[in-house]
Specification:
With 196 residues, this protein is of the alpha+beta class. The chain has helices spanning 2-14, 18-24, 29-40, 44-57, 76-83, 114-117, 122-128, and strands at 60-62, 68-70, 90-96, 103-107, 110-113, 133-136, 145-149, 159-162, 169-176, 187-194.
Length: 196
């Protein structure tokens, strides 16, 4: 948890747009904690919010002196899925042409291979992870066609980088197409990725 929080906090300090985005998402306690810490530093409120977040995600056991023990040993992917469940990175929608109830699937974080981060088509790799196009409707007793779509990502993506190879540390240029510019004109920034 603390590593994820530190990565996001560094991004808040380094970016002019991210504090604004966090402000819009502050109904999620994680983003509220980021905003508070970026303005006032680590305070008692930071520790309190962290405890509330962890208690909402993991079961806790009552300890001595009215303390709580929380076992937080999970993968980063599982933790990100829980932390960002109310603020998904991508939303996949499947609509049947016969009027079945649409299916919606939220992706709080997405996994991509680190080998794709260096390529110019990393956005396409993200899109290829999702079933896009038309398939048979999955509902029982329906012979309709279901079209699945997922909007292109906005300015920020929560990516879980899956290591493929012996790269321990590498610099990559990542770019994201802003929603107001559908063309492939990107803002390029350098990110240093490290496996822990």
């Amino acid at each position: 948890f603390d590593s994820i929080f530190q990565l996001f906090l560094s991004a808040v300090y380094d970016s002019k747009e991210l504090p604004k985005a966090c402000s819009e998402l502050k109904s999620n306690l994680f983003f509220e904690m980021l905003l508070h810490t970026s303005c006032k530093g680590i305070t008692r409120h930071t520790y309190y919010t962290r405890a509330i977040l962890l208690q909402n995600i993991f079961p806790s056991k009552q300890g001595i002196y009215n303390s709580a023990f929380i076992n937080c040993e999970v993968t980063v992917g599982h933790l990100c899925t829980k932390l960002f469940s109310t603020t998904p990175t991508l939303v996949e929608t499947s609509i049947c042409n016969r009027g079945c109830t649409p299916r919606v699937k939220n992706f709080p974080a997405i996994q991509i291979q680190n080998s794709f981060l260096g390529s110019e088509k990393w956005e396409d790799e993200i899109e290829n992870q999702f079933l896009l196009g038309t398939t048979s409707c999955s509902r029982q007793d329906c012979n309709g066609e279901e079209s699945t779509s997922s909007p292109r990502p906005g300015k920020y993506l929560n990516c879980i980088v899956v290591r493929s190879g012996s790269d321990v540390m590498k610099s990559y240029y990542l770019s994201v197409c802003p929603p107001d510019r559908p063309s492939r004109t990107f803002n390029r920034r350098t990110f240093l990725l490290r496996d822990f």
